[in-house]
Amino acid sequence: MVDYDDMVRMLFALAAAFLAASVVSAIQEHNAQNVTPSELKGLGCLPEKITPKATTVTFSERAPSLWDWRNVGGTNYMTSVKDQGSCGSCVAFGTIGAFEAVIKIEGGPTTDLSEAHLFFCGGGTCADGWYISSALDYLKDYGTPDETCFPYHDYDMPCGDTCSDWQDRAWKIKEWQWVTGRENIKNALVTYGPLVTAFDVYTDFDDYWSNPHSWPDDVYYHYYGFERGGHSVTLVGYNDNDQYWICKNSWGTSGGLNGYFKIKYRECNIENNVAYIEYQQSENVFPVAAFNYIPHFPTTQHLIHFIDLSTDPDGTIVAWYWELGDGTVSYEQNPVHQYSDDGIYQVNLTVTDDD
């Protein structure tokens, strides 16, 4: 038989449980009803399953317990945080974020590559998003030029807006591979540089982005709200002691941790679709100087037109230096000259390329 005091305690406990459930329900309802599309940052990473045909890589050495490409030996290898706006183009930003950093790690310059070209020329749309594998395949096969060639806006843009010489300005990756397993992911991160990854975004992540300090130690984990979709980001570091990944987002610098965020290991499938990039700077191939002239049998009465036929296999010729054999020099690409005396003249052409 339940006495009066036990009944009171039981009713109080039930009331407290009901109140707690109501609070959680109210939070979820608030997020579901009050977060409008205009307030939300873009996502756009389409789900894909790593099939047995896809390559995974294992590493024999154990990675260090801490890593962050923003500070390796005092050097920050990351480029600036960007903002995709409301367009579902996150795959381009997550991929380019990793690629730009890998270029720096391999000794290349700080670059600002075109997410617009990669996304809109590669086949993505703001409404439908894109696949990580498709973005990486495009970077391998075609590459993407610099940002000034095709500046980004957060609406669907025709590929024809890219500059006419984009192929000469394109940066390509050498190879890419999926990598699975936490230790392998960490080793790939340390070995190759920042990685491309994706995770499931719930509405509580939008709240985290607005105020990450409301989560313990600024580390995100999902505990309320509904799923909005998949989102690609750049994975730049990790912390084994506190069990979290460090990621670069593409929602600007006003939210999160100055455009970055921490997320618990395994949270929201963050470890399920991870890829690393291989990039190798090509050695410069020297240009080949060549020319012709007309008329082919000139006299002192003729104006001789020198025609540049030089080529550069891996760049663009930007300067010409002609020695016309009678003490005259020219810096024009196709100079015109008239000799005052009969004779045999040795003409030399030196060309300079842009790399």
Explain what the structure shows.
This protein is an alpha+beta fold and about 350 residues long. The protein has 2 domains: about 65-280, Cysteine proteinases (Cathepsin B, Chain A), CATH 3.90.70; about 290-350, Immunoglobulin-like (Sandwich). It has helices at about 5-35, 90-105, 115-120, 130-140, 180-190, 205-210; strands at about 65-70, 175-180, 195-200, 220, 225-240, 245-250, 260-265, 275-280, 290-295, 305-310, 315-325, 330, 335, 350-355. Strands 1, 3, 4, 5, 6 and 7 form a 6-stranded mixed β-sheet that branches. It has a 3-stranded antiparallel β-sheet with strand order 9-10-13, with no helix packed on it. A hairpin with a 5-residue loop joins strand 11 (about 315-325) and strand 12 (about 330). Helix 2 packs across helix 3.
